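Q: What would this chain look like folded?
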Amino acid sequence: MSTPTPGRVVVVGAGMVAHRFVSQMIARSPEGAWHVSVVGDEDRAPYDRVHLSEYFTGRSADDLTMEPSVWADPRTELVTGDAVASVDRETRTVTTRSGRVLAYDHLVLATGSWAWTPRTEGTDLPGVFSYRTLADLEGLREYVELRTARLGRPLHGVVVGGGVLGLEAAAALQTLGAAATVVEFADRLMSVQLDDAGGEALRVLVTDRGIEVRTSTGATGLTAAGDGAVGGMDLSDGSRVPADVVIFSTGIRPRDRVAREAGLAIGERGGVVVGAACHTSDPAVWAIGECASFEDQCVGLVAPGNAMADVVVDRLLGGVSTYSPAPEGTKLKGVDVEAASFGDVFGLTPGALEVTFADPVARTYRKLVVSDDARTLLGGVFVGDAALYSSLRPLLGRSLGADPSAFLAPEGGAPVLGGDLPDDVVVCSCANVTAGTVRGAVTEHGCTSLGEVKACTKAGTVCGSCVPVLTKIVNTTLEAAGVTVSNAMCEHFTMSRAELFALVRQDGLRTFTQIVAAHGTGRGCVVCKPVVASILASLWGGYILDGEQAALQDTNDRALANLQKDGTYSVVPRVPAGEITPEKLIVIGQVAQDFGLYTRVTGAQRIGLFGARIDQLPEIWRRLVDAGMESGQAYGKSLRAVKSCVGSSWCRFGVQDSVGMAVRLELRYRGLRSPHKFKIGVSGCARECAEARGKDVGVIATEKGWNVYVGGNGGFSPRHAELLAEDLDDETLVAVVDRFLAYYVRTADRLQRTAPWVADFPGGIVELRKVLVEDSLGIAADLEAEVARHVESYVDEWAQTLDDPDRLSRFVSFVNAPDQHDPDLAYTGVRGQVRPARPGEPSDNNPVIARTVEVRK
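A: My prediction, written as structure tokens:
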């Protein structure tokens, strides 16, 4: 069967979706006998509207222009600056504004949308703009520059609309030197994409950026300045704000005038009615993108438009593809603030469960919406840290394969997604590219880099949010094919953590500023900053919150405590090997009672106190430190604990003093910063009561001494530790563990536990044994010396904090109201203690709780 000939195709509109249509026609039918004319009213070729705001951060109009090579194909024609004025369906011709007549066999409407502005008095004043086209942005820049020069001061800019584009516009005003206020009629920013908590978290971040936010109010009128240009805005709450420049970002409407006048069916809410084949009411006319109304919905995103373009191309070439709307996803760009969402954001699916994690110190909020059995992913919200967005969005409607809370936990307990995604999962919704297509670009088309895969498949070339997942798939596929893969840590550092560690050590660099100047670019990100903080702490020690290091730390390290689900913190004193005196037990109990804290013995043989406000932490720790206790560093990427059985001291089966060795090891490695947390277990005999082989370092007593195992862990992917050395005496055991931990700190990747590090070590445990036990590289003494320096320089972080008033000043609930506390903390009784109250659950009236944590009545 021969491939049908599309003949003469005219595309009305020259935007991103039209460009996609032409690109696919060329890719799908490289030898076909057809001709496509694309007619656009703007005087330039199709350009990237998704990254439009980057025009203000250095990208020129030419940089934003989409791949121009499609117009080099002799079968394509691009007409710019000449809008289609009318369509004659009888003669199958279109007439442009200049009078040009084009005949067609198939007409494709891709007219997009226009920026809607509410009927507000004064919108015709000079200085009032939309934020939709390159011409809009060019006019805005010119106006702000001229107006600033005329007034001799920075301008006051106001953006009406707190959605994604409105926030981008506000950031653009700041880039142009103007102050920015966002006015949003809804009660939160990005009200369509974010829930209440996410909107509030975004408000805090946007305000931190210097953008004023006014929600639950709208513009009722614009007033003129003395020279007739816009000068102020009246709001529905009765207030007035200065406004030297105003941008309306209040939504879009489909551009369907040509279709209406041609007599095509129009949806109730506007837009050209199409079916699953993207046909309009005329079988010779198709509609794609924002102007198309499918099931009475017009979608203002590029991904559905690209999917429609693919359907029409397939149909014209004899296929039977149909359009099916995919769940929407949105990611904020160009604002230096991360916010993203996808799927059922508001949990409207019957039986849906919501799993949330909020970190008020790091100012992040994450939520997953899952099915009633907590297995199927239905939606997600991410504010402040949207790293999970690109990994989880492809799993929408599929099984998560893990406890949803594991993906949100600070430790990042869930597996890194991407490499093992099924072939049929769409990883780039903008270009409708599946994981299988990405793998095929490597295995079938010979692509050897992410850039080549993007060029081949067009994945990641539009909004870019899928790039992290694409990178994982590409790297995994390349590695499987035996190709060496770049190990760049992030966009700011082209080397791995291990390489950066070696460079910092070699050069003696002591600050992030020095490191990024010598070996990186830019100002860093949420990936590289904590890594650098860990490297500096591992190499040079010192107080981790001194100087610029404070800004590099993760949330828990900044508070020297573990953040809990309700915004309070846990307090975990060090209890080496689980051994504690009655006097210290009494102090812990008294502190818990006085502060109304939930108390439990942890799996690491420590005592955890839960529910402390951040402002209470110094007072709690002062009492613990005065009693001879120190931080157990349950918050750090460092040693968590050394678990032990009672060994030969009490047990009739014990053959060595496991408690004594466990205490020695814990006091030696306490505070040792590493790529990830690590745990040690010491068992006094082969019965293994301390579960040592489930730890990063496991020590098991023998009649002759000690066997040491490495690379074990429990958690999401349990792994038994492997035997590194056996029958060691006490001193040799300590030396071997020194070498193992120091080598791990030197060479592991960021956030890599010892289990995968050992598993991935070239040559496996045999080669690792040669390096660490037999000293095949001649570095054993150097590794031992690094640990010795750490031991000599160790100082308890909380003791250091309590001795310095400046350091104590950071421990307040609200920076701008240090004497106030969170009024939303609510608790309920459980088995004689308290836990955070669930929504709608009555609070406990315990007087201790009421006094110390201000229970909401």
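Residues 23 and 70 are 6 Å apart (CA to CA).
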